[in-house]
Amino acid sequence: MKLRCIAILNRQDTPVYMRSFDDNEGGGDDVKYQHLAHTSCDVIEERMQKSPSDMYLGLLQTVGELAVYGYVLNTGGVRIIMVISVPESIVRAAAIKEVFQQVHAAYIALVCNPFNEFDDASGGGGRLVSGKFEAIISELGRVHSN
Amino acid sequence: MASQSHAQAQAQMHTQNLMKLDNKTSKRSNMLLEHNVSRPRRDRVGLGAFAFMFAEIIRYSQNRVLGIQDLEAKLSEIGQRVGVRMFELAMWREKTVHRETRVLQTLVFINTVVWRALFDKQADSLERSTESDDEYMITDNEPAILKYISVPKEMSSFSPGAFISGIVEAIARCCQCPARVTSHVVPADGLPLRTVILLKFDKEVMDREKRLEAGK
């Protein structure tokens, strides 16, 4: 499973964090992932309505050779979106869920940091900046880059 | 004869009381001996350490404000920062997907889950005010973090529980039930530190509750 991008959106669907794992091109691809994140928002809303008792939303959409998976946090509307290259072999939902849970745990660790000025309650969509969080996401990208 | 039996009865009661005390201390020391040495509980902070920091927080705030209202507001703001993070952490640990959005469920959540995570006990009572239907009161008979804060007589209207009310306010806001939260010290017999957290929910919240009740 080749991880391409992890994005975190807040309740108002503004991207709060975006990290792409393509090591070749630069800003061009970021726009592609932002576009994917925006188009996934509606699908997220509709999945949330359909199955309100699950944090993992499953496969949201496939665009070309990219598959987009979604996950909602249980504390309000923060969403995590993961884009992977369409795999040759079947990818298990459990593997995707595990990656999401690791991102969730890293996010909780980030929010609990008292020196972090990110305030979700205002819905302001401030950028998430933290060395440890970046390190965990990089590690996830490295592990799932085959 | 009567005085002898009276003295005997007194002596008996005295020894009984002593034995009760002895029971309590021996039970406590037994529990201490049964704690796991190789796997200590890391989710607890010593009260002394926290009391030290809390006293410094109050002194820090006091140097930067003029007046009791501002002091309570500043403590409440610090409490709100704690509350936001506590909410995320508590929901993560609960591992449920369901998020409380109704007033009563939010209050029960604060009373049980949040209080247990913060103070290792549940809040002592939850009451609804009789005068206005948008006011609720959470009572804590002996808030542990306020144990070592003594308020001077000239500031007797100041309640250091403003920190706790900040935490509650942030959690109520995260549960989509914004409220104005204040804390008051209401001593009862034997409980000089009894603190009441008063929540006054916003008008939209009460309107929404009425609509949801009517819709049911």
UniProtKB/TrEMBL annotation, chain A:
This is Uncharacterized protein. The lineage of its organism: Eukaryota, Fungi, Fungi incertae sedis, Zoopagomycota, Kickxellomycotina.
From TrEMBL, chain B:
It holds the Pfam family TRAPP. One of its GO terms (cellular component) is endoplasmic reticulum. It is found in: Endoplasmic reticulum; Golgi apparatus, cis-Golgi network. Its main location: endoplasmic reticulum. Keywords: Endoplasmic reticulum, ER-Golgi transport, Golgi apparatus, Transport. GO terms for biological process: endoplasmic reticulum to Golgi vesicle-mediated transport. SUPFAM superfamilies: Ligand-binding domain in the NO signalling and Golgi transport (SSF111126). The keyword Glycoprotein does not apply. It comes from the Eukaryota. InterPro entries: NO_sig/Golgi_transp_ligand-bd, TRAPP-I_su5, TRAPP_component. Part of the multisubunit TRAPP (transport protein particle) complex. Belongs to the TRAPP small subunits family. BET3 subfamily. This is Trafficking protein particle complex subunit. It comes from Coemansia aciculifera. The lineage of its organism: Eukaryota, Fungi, Fungi incertae sedis, Zoopagomycota, Kickxellomycotina. The gene is trs31.
